[in-house]
Amino acid sequence: MKVITTIKEMRAAIADLRREPSGSAKGIGFVPTLGYLHEGHASLLKRAREDNGAVVLSIFVNPLQFGPNEDFERYPRDSDRDLNVARQEGVAIVFMPDVQEMYPQRMLTSVAVSGITDILCGSSRPGHFDGVATVVSKLFNIIQPDRAYFGLKDAQQVAVVQRMVQDLNMNVEIVPCPTLREEDGLAMSSRNVYLTAEERRQALVLQQSLNDAEEWLKRPGIRLGELKEKVAAQISTAPLADIDYVEIVSYPSFLPLEEWEHQALDIVGDKQILIALAVRFGQTRLIDNRILSLEGLDLKGALSHV
Ligand code: AMP
Known about the structure:
Order of helices and strands: EHHEHEHEHHHEHEHHHEHEEH
Strand content: 15-25%
Largest sheet: 6 strands, parallel
CATH topology of the largest domain: Rossmann fold
Structural class: alpha/beta
Mean pLDDT: 95
Bound molecules: adenosine monophosphate
């Protein structure tokens, strides 16, 4: 496994890989991360390994995607452990540049996806998705992968990257991957290490509220506005939970519930909803979501008095 820190060496290593039968025939799969790897990241690496001849992993805590009062400085880092995970997962190249290497001068260029970034994490973390789209563009340009793997735990991020790739004709296939959870249902996240034991216990309410939402949606006559309120009320039963947002959007178009009209949804063609949560427990902001089918639902009734 090669560990590379400079863009110049990275380009040379990719060129070498392309000359090898494995890299050229089955392609190069890419998994971008902020590091502090867990089994969720490992599942992306496994999938990339299955689909491709070689896998490139990037580990870069990207300052552009953190707001001024967010956790950039204290974001957990452990490169030795990360490299062991990468080795176990059969990664060919780990790209771990420092900030100076990625941003040697003030960036005058940024990649911004509009519309779907006005809501959810886009509105509660201003500038976040510009930072994501910009760094992912840079990484795609440096690595030029055939496929790139992203977790649906960050469903809005997947949508933003997919749209960026479509709009800018980037020659890479985006592969969305399912969310891996701890045994008790908490979505795996590098940020889970920040949680105290009590916060960790109460954070289970996220997964529980999404499970309940799935059941509530099956009830005849349920309205989506009511569903949103029920989920928020369920989360608020945890005394340490401080809700950033609870939102329902159409999926995969990310049309906010309030803007839906039967007509519009028909045009968009969305057949699913995404229930998205962002909730603080102490200093730690966690996100989770569930994608549910609208099949069999009386949409007109479900949308009444939204
Ligand atoms: P991060 O290091 O948090 O930026 O995550 C890197 C990639 O791993 C992103 O595409 C995430 O969506 C994905 N990821 C993070 N947590 C999970 C999880 N629990 N299950 C699956 N993928 C995940």
